[in-house]
Amino acid sequence: MESELLFGEFQRSLDDRYRVGIPADLLEPMDLQSGQAVLAKERPGCLSLWNAGLWRQKMDASIKVLQGKIQAGRLEGRLNEVQQLGRLLSTRHRDVKLSDRGRLLIPEGFREFLQVEPGDDAMVIGAAVCVEIWRPNAWVDYLNQRMPRFSKLFDKLVE
Amino acid sequence: MESELLFGEFQRSLDDRYRVGIPADLLEPMDLQSGQAVLAKERPGCLSLWNAGLWRQKMDASIKVLQGKIQAGRLEGRLNEVQQLGRLLSTRHRDVKLSDRGRLLIPEGFREFLQVEPGDDAMVIGAAVCVEIWRPNAWVDYLNQRMPRFSKLFDKLVE
DNA sequence: ATGCTTTGTGGGAATTCAACCCATCCAGTG
DNA sequence: CACTGGATGGGTTGAATTCCCACAAAGCAT
C-alpha cells in the first residue's frame, strides 16, 4: 500500500490566515487523494498530517486491540478510563483537505495546540509514515532530548 | 567498491552564500557520480560529506529493511516508534549535489548546526571514509581532547 | 431578510535563494 | 616570466516561497 517513506526537514512560515505550504518533496510521496488527509495532535507544539487511508489502518489496529481487551474482560473495572480515552480520540484528530498547491489550513483548536501566531515560522518534518508540523522551539527541544538515543532506536527497529 | 581512503587537512573559507570548495585532493578519491553526495550532521560544529553510494551501503540498506517490515505489517503496532525514528532520520542527513568545481552549498538547517556565518573559515578534513567540515574552533578542541589517545587508537586499528 | 463581519480559498506579484557560469586572483611550475 | 590549475567572488537566470489582496462562504446582528 504505502511504499515510500517520508523524510526531510523544511522551514516554512504560516501566512496571515494560518496556512502552511507543505513542500512538494513530502507531499508527493504522501499520495493524497484529492488532498484528503487527517491532521492529529501529536504533542504540544507538534501536529501530524496523515494519508487518510494510512490513518484509518492505524486507528483500526488500535481499536481492535482495545476491543479485544474489553471482550477479554481485562478492562472490566476500568470502563470509565476507556470512555475517557474515546473522548480524547475524538478531539485528537480531524479530517482536513489541503487546498490548491498543497497548502494546509491549520484549523481552529489545532492552532492553540501548536502554539503559533499568524506569520510565525514552523518546521515541516518527514516522519517516515506521516508529515509533522512543529513549533521551532519545540522541535529543537525535542531533538536535544531525543537525539542521543537515536542509534538505540534505530538498531531496535532495523534488526 | 571504494578503494581509496581520504586524508588531508585543509583550511577553506565560506563565501557569503555559504559555499565551501572541497579540495581536489579529497574530491577526486570520493569519486562522486555527477556530484551526488550526502551531507550528515556529525556533531555540533562538524558535518560529514559522503559518497552517495557509500552512504547507501551504510544507511539506506537499513531503511530498506525498515520499509520492508512496514509493508509486511510487522511494525503495525509500533508505528509510533517508526514515526519517531523517521523524525530523527530527517534531520540527520540530506542529499546534496556539489556544483561546478566541487563546491558545496551548505543547506539551511546545517548552517546553524555547524555554527558558521558567511565569510567564516572552515576546516575540511579527510576522515578516511568521508570528508568532514569543521568549525575551526570545534576542530582544535577535538584535537586537543582526542590527540592524546591517537596512538592507542592507531595501534588498535592497525594491529 | 439584509447587510456587515469573520473566516477560508485562490491566485498574482514580489522576493528570496540556489544553480549555473564566467572572471579574477594567487601560487606553484616549467 | 608566462602558464596552468585551483580557489574565490560575483552576475544572471530560474524556480520556489512568501506576501498580499480580491473573492466566496458562513455566521451574526439589526
Ends apart, CA distance between termini of chain A: 23 Å
CATH homology superfamily name of the domain at 9-52 and 95-158 in chain A:
Transcriptional regulator MraZ domain
Class inferred from helices and paired strands of chain A: alpha+beta
CATH topology of the domain at 9-52 and 95-158 in chain A: Chemotaxis protein chec
How many individual β-strands of chain A? 8
| Radius of gyration of CA atoms of chain A, rounded to a whole number | 17 Å
Shape of chain A: globular
Q: Kindly state the mean pLDDT of chain A as a whole number?
A: 89
What is the helix content of chain A? 40-55%
* Uncertain runs of chain A: none
Number of continuous helical runs of chain A: 6
The most extensive interface between chains reads: A-B, 31 and 28 residues
Oligomeric state of the chains? Answer: homodimer
Q: What is the CATH class name of the domain at 9-52 and 95-158 in chain A?
A: Alpha Beta
Give the biggest beta sheet of chain A: 6 strands, antiparallel
Q: Write the element-wise H/E pattern of chain A from the N-terminal end onward.
A: EEHEEHHEEHEEHH
> Order of strands side by side in the largest beta sheet of chain A?
1-7-8-4-3-5
CATH architecture of the domain at 9-52 and 95-158 in chain A: 3-Layer(aba) Sandwich
- Portion of residues in beta strands of chain A equals 25-35%
